[in-house]
C-alpha cells in the first residue's frame, strides 16, 4: 500500500521545484480539495454515464454496470503509478514532463502530441454534448445552428473563467463537484429508493442482448461504458505548480478522484437502470436517449428542470477543467521550447498567473472543430471524437511503460508518496490492464462500413502519423535542453537533499 516516509526533512515546494530545474511562476492557491475537484469534474461521472448509458445497455444489457468496477480497479492501479511519478516530479504539464524525465524528449513529445489532441477533441465533444442540456433548459429546439451557438457559449464562458486565475478555477471546480455529487449520487439514491421499477437481480440478466451467440462477446462490446469514464484524474498533476504541497496532495487527489468518481458512477448507472419504466426498450435500442424519459417520469417537470441546471453546471465545470489541463500541457511544451511559438505559449499573465496564450489555443482549436462539425455531414462528431479515448489510454500507458523501464534500471521513486515494495507489481499490473483496455478500444466493429468499423485506429493513425512526420522533419527535441531520462539520478539527489 502507499506509504509516506517520515524520516528526514521535507523539501519546500519552491526548493523541490528548483531542484528539478524550474522556478516558481504561479500562485500556489489550490488546496487538496480544489485539486480533487478539478480531477473529479474532468472525469465527470454525470457526463460519462449520460453519454454512454444507452450504448452500454444495448450492447451488454444491465450487467454492463460491472465494467465500472473492472475499469475503475484498473485505472486505480494507473493512478498509483502516476502518484509516485508526480510525487517525485510535481511539474506543470503532467504526462509530457513525466515521460520526458522517465524516458526522453522524443518519446515525451509523441506521448504529449497524442494526449493534447485527445484532450482538445474531448473539450469539443463535451461542449457539443452540453449544448443539449443548455437547449432543454431554455426550451430551444436543438438545430445544428443552436448546437453550434450553445457549444461556443460554453467554450467561451469557460475561457473567461480560466482567464481570471487559479482561485476561480478551483472555486468553479468545487461548485462543479457539488453539482456532480447532487446530480449523480443524490439523484441516483433517490431513484434507487423511491422510483425503483426493477429488482436488483436485473444486473445479472442479459435480457437477450447476446442473441444466439455467447454473452461474453456482448459483454466485451459494452466495455466502453467504463473505459470512456475513468480518466481525468491525471489533470490533478497538470496544475502541479499551482497546488500547495503537490508532492503529497496530488497523489491523494488522484486516488480520491477514482474512488469517489467510481462510486458516483455506480449510483447513477444503477439508479437509471432500476428506475427505467421500460427497460426492454432501452436494451433493444428502441429508446436511444432514455435518461430524459427516466428523469421526467421520476422527477416531474420541475425536478427535471432542476436536474438540467445541475447537469449544465457540471458540463461547464468539465469544459473549464479540460481547458485548464490542456493549457498547462501546452505551457509545459512551450516552456521547454518543444513547439513552434514556444515563447508565446509559455507566457504567463503577470496579473492572474495563468498561461493565457495556451488557454486561447485550448479554446480556439475546439471552436474551429465545432465549426467543422457544423458544416460537415451528420455524425461527424462521433467520427472526430472516436479516437479520443484510445489516444488518452495510449498517453497513460506511455507513462506506465516508462515508469516500468526506469524501475528495471534501478529507480526507487523518491517522492513522499511511495508504494514501497509493491510498486513494481502495481506497475506491471497497470501495464497489463492498459494493454487489455487498448485492445478492447481498438477492436474493429462489425457493421461492414470500413470507416465506422476502423475509425478508432484511423483517427489514432492520423494523429500518430502527423506527429511522427513533424518529429523527424522539424526535430523539436533538438530545440530543447530540458532534462530527460534522469529519474534514477533525481531520486538520489532528492534523497540527499532530504537528509
Note down, in words, how this protein is organized.
The protein has 499 residues and is mainly α. The protein contains 21 helices and two strands. It has helices at residues 13-19, 32-43, 45-60, 66-88, 95-102, 105-138, 144-163, 166-194, 215-221, 224-227, 235-238, 246-275, 279-283, 290-335, 342-345, 356-375, 380-408, 423-442, 450-453, 455-474, 487-497, and strands at residues 3-4, 417-418. The chain has a two-stranded antiparallel sheet with strand order 1-2. It is globular.
Short characterization:
By secondary structure, this protein is mostly helical. 71% of the residues lie in helices and 1% in strands.
**N- to C-terminal separation?**
24 Å
Task: Give the helix level as a range of percent.
Answer: over 70%
CATH superfamily: Amino acid/polyamine transporter I
Summed up, the domain count is 1
The low-pLDDT segments are none
What order do the SSEs take from the amino end to the carboxyl end, as H and E? EHHHHHHHHHHHHHHHHHEHHHH
The name of the CATH topology is Amino acid/polyamine transporter I
Structural class: mainly alpha
Using the 3D structure, state the CATH architecture: Up-down Bundle
Would you report the number of β strands? 2
Mean pLDDT: 87
Provide the CATH top-level class.
Answer: Mainly Alpha
Provide the β-strand percentage band: under 5%
Strand order of the largest sheet: 1-2
The rounded Rg comes to: 22 Å
**Overall morphology:** globular
Describe the sheet with the most strands. Answer: 2 strands, antiparallel
Count of individual helical segments:
21
